[in-house]
């Protein structure tokens, strides 16, 4: 039989272990250096510039700006991991691998896997290997440049996701001239990671806006739904064509008016047809996707734009918890059946 002293010692040890575990858990979810406010209307917000775009954060239930700083640090880290142009990033290493296998981070591998999924789902409309085309158009540094037919055809010979092989965290591009561009999905993925961080810190209400990838945390502080404006194509950012009321969802728009230039009376924008390498022209101005994950929404908004209204709508309707708004170039609005329409 155990002596009562031993039993007491055992109980004390169990209690102590439990206490230490609880402390460990709390320190991971709510580090003491961040303070949540007992006032749900307390709020901090700020604007930053990452991934070549304006990002905005609004957090409710806290007055602690260090939470925002932590989110900006996270974005900075993702920028150095996923940028196509920054030397040493995972994407840069893949694109300079000369056909050799490369080790990449878990995040980059997850993003590539998700990109493969949307390539399959969209029948190749969403294709991160459009990079040889995007390099020719060079919207970021040299807008106005229209590549010739031969240049595009030559680049097209190195486009196609079949060139990319991923096993665990090892990626191989079997064509040294092939390359990837995560611009159609990375911002959504990063928005999801920022939300994860904030929810882990106890934030229950807030809004993350990564250059048009909008991700809501919970509801507004008063429990009301968020009212998200969908921008009128080519108008001022503040000019909205309609609004959508949501909670805890992602709202992502891909549109011709986000990055474009005009030449010879034609509009050239940055969403490219993987077949031809030219900007997609199908009578659409934009596609907005509602979904839980912003990475899904980002890939889908680009994919549906390339697919066009009919095929894009069919894809959206085949997916659970996903709704879409297509805006045509006559400014008419086309909603998927479950879309929470205004009014
Ligand atoms: P935004 O950056 O305005 O949010 P999108 O999410 O619509 O735009 O993505 C457009 C970006 O995706 C382009 O700038 C390019 O980097 C990349 N891209 C262009 N065409 C495709 C395509 N067919 N499939 C996947 N990515 C693409
Ligand atoms: Mg996208």
List keywords for this structure.
single chain; alpha+beta; T-fold; eight-stranded antiparallel β-sheet; three-stranded antiparallel β-sheet; 9 helices; 15 strands; binds adenosine-5'-diphosphate
Regions with little confidence, pLDDT below 50 for 5+ residues: 20-32
Give the class-level CATH name of the largest domain.
Answer: Alpha Beta
**Domains (count):** 2
Q: Over the alpha carbons, how many angstroms does the gyration radius reach? A: 23 Å
Kindly report the average pLDDT value.
91
How many DSSP helices? 9
Spatial sequence of strands, sheet with the most strands: 1-2-6-7-10-13-14-15
Distance N to C terminus: 74 Å
CATH architecture of the largest domain: Roll
- The oligomeric state is single chain
Q: How are helices and strands ordered from N to C? A: HEEHHEHHHEEHEEEEEEEEHHEE
Largest sheet: 8 strands, antiparallel
